[in-house]
Amino acid sequence: MRFAVIVFPGSNCDIDCYKAVEETIGQPVDYVWHTATDLSAYDAIIVPGGFSYGDYLRCGAIARFAPVMNEVRKAAEEGKYVLGICNGFQILTEAGLLPGVLLRNRELKFRCHPALLEVVNNETPFTRDYAKGEIVNIPIAHGEGNYYCDEETLAKLEANGQVVFRYKAGENPNGSVSDIAGICNEGRNVVGMMPHPERAVSELLGSSDGKRMFTSVLSAWRERHGATVNG
Amino acid sequence: MKATVYVTIKENVLDPQGAAVQGALHSLGFKEVGKVRIGKYMELTLDTNDRSEAEARVKAMCEKLLANTVVEDYRFELEG
Fold this sequence. Notes:
By secondary structure, chain A is of the alpha/beta class. Helices cover 24% and strands 23% of the residues of chain A.
C-alpha cells in the first residue's frame, strides 16, 4: 500500500506523518510537493498539519487551490483513502471535501496538549481497529480547531454517522459544535480531524493510541485489494 | 479601478475575537459598547475600467477565495 504525504509551503507535520507510516505499518511512503499533478500511484493520501501559506486569509484558504488539490479531489472521488490532520482538516473543509469550517478557538488560545477523544464511528477505514465508544489519548495543537457547521449540516452529520471523533464530555478544548474533533465524508473514505494521531504512535511520545489509525487503513486497503498484495 | 472588500462573520456565528475585544473595552470603561464584530478589510486595485465587469469579477473573487460563505458575509465597493 502506497502513501503520499502532501507538502505545502508551511506544512510542519509532514515528517511526523511520514515517520508514523514507516514506524507503524512499514508501508512505502513519499513526500509529494503541492505542485504535483498526478497522485495515481498512491492508495492513501495524508494532508498534514502546519501553517500552509502562512494561514493567510483563512487556514487552508490558499492551499486548497494548490495544483495537487485537484488530484486529492480526484483520489477522494475514486474512493481512495484521504486523511487530513489539523491544517490538513482545515484544507479539506476549505476545498469542500468535508463540510463545515474550523474557526478560532473559543478562548482564543493556541491549545497544545494531550486530548481524550471518544471514537464515535469505528466503521471508517481509519478507525476500524478501535472499539466504538473507546476513549483514546491523541494530542491536539491548534489555534483554529473550533469546528462549526449550521444545524442542518450537523443533523446530517449525526444521522449519517459522519462524526468520527468527539472530545471527551466536558473536555472540549476549542468550543466545537457537538464536541466534534473529527468527521468523515458520506463515503467514509475522507476523514478530517484536529488531533494528531501521528504524534501518538509510541509510548515514548506519551501515547500510542494514534497507531491504530494507520493499522486500520492498512487493513481496510488489504481487505479491498486481497490480503496477498504488497505484504 | 479600486475595489474595497469587507468580510465579516455571519450574525449567527460566534465571533470569539469580537467577544474578547468587547470585554477589553468594557474593562477600559467603555461601558456603552454593546456588541463587537471583527472582520477583514481588503483593498484591491483592478486593471479594468469596466464597472459591470469589475463587479462580476470581484463577486467571483469573494465567493471563491476572499470569503468562506459557510461562516462569512462579504460586501464590496468599487471606485474610479
